[in-house]
Each structure stands twice: as structure tokens, then as C-alpha cells.
Amino acid sequence: MNKDIQAYNDAQAVTDAEICHLLAKEIDKGLPEAECKIWHAHPVWFLDGNPIVGYSKLKNSIRLLFWSGQSFDEAALQNEGSFKAAEMRYTAAAQVNTKDMKRWLQKARDIQWDYKNLIKRKGVLERLK
Question: Is pLDDT above 90 for 81?
Fold first, then answer.
């Protein structure tokens, strides 16, 4: 695991750290080719420089965010923001359904919007895959 992501996870409260460690393990397993790093203070995984999935500590939960998740056609994922992102929130590691995560990560690889060039395109998203 990336040492900076390990440090981020370890810095969380016990229950949140359990969730973060599980999410990182599942994301690494599902997207072994992805580059991961702390980006805007949160763990994020990238494919070809495009942000794909990440998680962050919110006040009462850990949010798992898929940048192109609104295009996955997954009822469990909730729309987030004004672009194509969708999220799932967790308050315990037992809530993480690894079977769902595996499917979502496959969709994250196959369905991508071009966030990498969002600024260059003045806020216009284009579908990559």
C-alpha cells in the first residue's frame, strides 16, 4: 500500500481507520494498474492521470467516491456534485460490500469521464470510455 495512504488511514479514529484500510485494500485489488496518492488531502486512484475513485473522512462517515459513478447504473450509489460523481458512505467496515465494490471498480475502469482535462475544457466533461 502507498505509504502516504497508509498514514492517512492510520491517522483516522479506530472505526474509520478500519473502513479506510478495507477500502484501500479492495481498490488496490480491483485496480492494480492504478496510480494512487494523496490528492487534495485524500486518497485517490488514477488511471492515465484521470481520477477514478477515492475516499475521504466526512463528519459522520467515510465517503467512497467514484468520479464517473453516475454513469454506472448502480442504485446503491448516490449522486454527488454537479458532474458525474457518485458516492457511498460508511460508518462501519461491516457495511462495505466487497462484491459490490468489485463490480463498481470494474465499471470505474470501463466507464470514464475526462476529469483530467476538465479545466482545459472550461468545465465541459467528455466521455473517455
Answer: no
